[in-house]
Design brief:
The protein is an alpha+beta fold. It contains seven helices and 19 strands. Bound molecules: pyridoxal-5'-phosphate. The site of pyridoxal-5'-phosphate has 14 residues, from helix 5 and strand 15.
């Protein structure tokens, strides 16, 4: 999807014009993938706009940086305030927010420790990520997700997305909307940019963090909603074939939101439509985001914007 530029980008504590947010080709991140980032959505509600689970996202950014020994020169509160500042300065909602911290221009060589840490926050309009409201036709990827002790899955690092790109490109090339990767032991892991849920006999299953999945904020939100709706939830390693015999399956993610799977490897999931458990969770999720239900978990940080388009 082409990027729709906005006016301002937050860089190291100040707002700069979008077109001035450039880096040198010899920056460490370009050569060695040394970045950590976030993806956050801001939604509109009747009479306003709110950023979804801002603090949880920025905490994950801080954690990702910590895993990579990248001390961020800002506190969590300062980072949260910076996101609000750039969203309000650009004045557009709904939007997607992309904070990123990386090793900049300093030294050449693998050692990142002598290169400066730069932090940028951009935001821009961005619509539906996984194509089609009728559900996604997906495949199991021939690529595995990152093995433990290779790249840490709990860090949302730019370099992880080389693996995601292989999974996603293979799926697109073969006519699927997305690919699901297995972990190194052959258990279900996640999509290239989504967590995976399966529903069977009224129970919701998802892979635990030890199966090389990102600790998704949407995943967590769905677990909270499921428990509140009284739907049993089990986090356990899952065999690939459960996808062929489950009643329902769906992806979660900031970009993908809640997207049901229509088929896996051309085998229909249930009858291919969004099943009742997925629908209950989907509606509970969107009702909060769109302001139709009370924000009972305090998931939305209000922002003042000029152009709010009601969804
Ligand atoms: C690999 C991967 N898994 C899962 C997710 C879902 O995470 P979240 O719900 O925090 O967006 C994402 C998206 O950020 C992702 O890139």
């Amino acid at each position: 999807m082409p990027i729709q530029p906005t006016k301002n980008i937050w860089r190291n504590g100040e707002l700069i014009p979008w077109e001035k947010a450039n880096i040198h080709v010899m920056s460490h991140v370009i050569h060695y993938g040394s970045s950590v980032f976030e993806g956050i959505r801001c939604y509109t509600q009747p009479g306003g706009a709110g950023i979804f689970r801002l603090s949880e996202h920025m905490k994950r950014l801080v954690d990702s940086a910590r895993i990579y020994r990248m001390p961020l020169p800002y506190t969590l509160d300062q980072l949260n305030a910076a996101v609000v500042e750039v969203v309000e300065a650009n004045g557009i909602a709904p939007c997607y927010i992309r904070p990123i911290a990386f090793r900049g221009y300093g030294e050449i060589g693998v050692n990142p420790l002598k290169s400066p840490i730069d932090v940028y926050i951009a935001n821009f309009p961005w619509g539906k990520y996984v194509a089609g409201n009728d559900g996604a036709d997906v495949c199991i990827s021939s690529w595995n997700r990152l093995a433990p002790n290779t790249m840490p899955s709990m860090a949302k690092a730019g370099a992880n997305y080389m693996n995601s790109q292989l999974i996603h490109m293979e799926a697109l090339t073969n006519g699927y909307a997305e690919g699901i990767a297995l972990d190194k032991n052959g258990y279900l892991s996640e999509g290239s940019g989504e967590n995976l849920f399966v529903v069977r006999s009224g129970v919701i299953y998802t892979a635990p963090l030890a199966n090389s999945v990102l600790s998704g904020i949407t995943r967590d939100s769905i677990l909270v909603l499921a428990r509140q709706l009284g739907i049993p939830v089990v986090e356990q390693p899952l065999p690939r074939e459960i996808l062929y015999v489950c009643d329902e399956a769906f992806f979660t993610g900031t970009a993908a939101e809640v997207t049901h799977l229509r088929s896996v490897d051309r085998i229909l999931v249930g009858d291919g439509t969004m099943g009742p458990v997925t629908k209950a969770l989907h509606d509970a999720y969107f009702n909060i985001l769109n302001g139709l239900d009370e924000d009972r978990f305090h998931w939305l940080t209000p922002v003042t914007v000029r152009e709010a388009v009601t969804v």
